[in-house]
Design a protein that fits this description.
This protein is α/β, with parallel strands linked by helices and about 240 residues long. It contains 10 helices and 7 strands. α1 runs antiparallel to α4. About 10% of the residues have low confidence. Bound molecules: S-adenosylmethionine. This is Methyltransferase domain-containing protein.
Length: about 240
């Protein structure tokens, strides 16, 4: 049987992660994530489905999964380093990045509470390699009142950061790829997840069931600094006879 889906989606289906079966994120990831990585970290192991997928997709990489549930965090997954920790705890994250970082790709598939998404990003962004990618999954929770526990929703917060992007100089974010949206019916989404069907739970205008974003760190060379040196360079034309 032929499909239009890529290899990562096929691996996701094989291992049964909802990144493939429900959200449909994986073709987007295959397009925008590197073909090979050295180290990948995912927040959220649960039954290990996505970690097994990443190991199959990047067989030569160090794949690290973390979970704040002890049983899940200690799960034995061949080819995957699993760690029991809270990805919103500064000292635990510091230990993690010192021992196993930096990472070329980090995927936040943790609690999806907006305060946790923002906290983990702040703690882990410095551990992304230059040119690496940070993925925040299930951003549709920014449109669900029972997941918003921060001053700004994560979508608002990312949009604010995107507005500050200036060639990577200030916030060192070179690109926000996305937001990728799997279009659908938000009320239906809420109902399928067993939440009350009242309109008040869905607080966003978007007609999108699943939203994810890839945020790319600026490359190693600071463009402003490079421009500075280029301007200072003395060329043959500048020489005085
Ligand atoms: C959606 S599941 C992960 C699914 C898995 N990534 C997959 O696609 O197969 C979310 C997991 O994140 C874990 N989690 C929630 N908050 C966390 C935190 N602050 N730090 C680490 N793990 C967390 C939960 O215990 C749960 O196992």
């Amino acid at each position: 049987m032929t499909t239009n889906h890529g290899r990562l989606h096929q691996l996701g289906l094989h291992h049964g992660t909802d990144k493939a079966t429900y959200h449909g994120y994986l073709d987007f990831y295959e397009t925008h994530l590197p073909a090979a990585v050295g180290r990948l970290l995912e927040i959220g192991i649960m039954d290990g489905a996505s970690l097994k997928m990443w190991h199959d997709y990047y067989p030569d990489a160090t794949i690290v999964g973390v979970d704040n549930d002890e049983q899940r965090g200690r799960r034995n997954i061949p080819g995957v380093r699993t760690v029991w920790l809270d990805a919103t705890d500064p000292s635990e994250v510091e230990l993690l990045t010192a021992r196993l970082g930096p990472f070329d790709v980090i995927i936040d598939d943790g609690s999806h509470m907006t305060a946790d998404q923002q906290r983990s990003f702040e703690l882990l962004w410095p551990a992304i390699t230059p040119g690496g990618s940070y993925v925040i999954e299930d951003l549709h929770t920014s449109h669900m009142s029972n997941y918003v526990n921060s001053r700004q929703t994560t979508i608002e917060w990312l949009n604010d950061m995107a507005a500050q992007v200036d060639g990577g100089h200030n916030v060192a974010i070179s690109t926000i790829i996305g937001f990728w949206k799997n279009q659908g019916d938000p009320a239906g989404f809420v109902a399928r997840h067993g939440f009350p069907t009242g309109r008040d739970l869905w607080i966003g205008p978007e007609r999108a069931e699943s939203i994810t974003a890839i945020i790319v760190k600026a490359p190693a060379v600071d463009r402003n600094l490079a421009d500075h040196f280029a301007a200072d360079m003395v060329t043959d034309d500048d020489e005085v006879d």
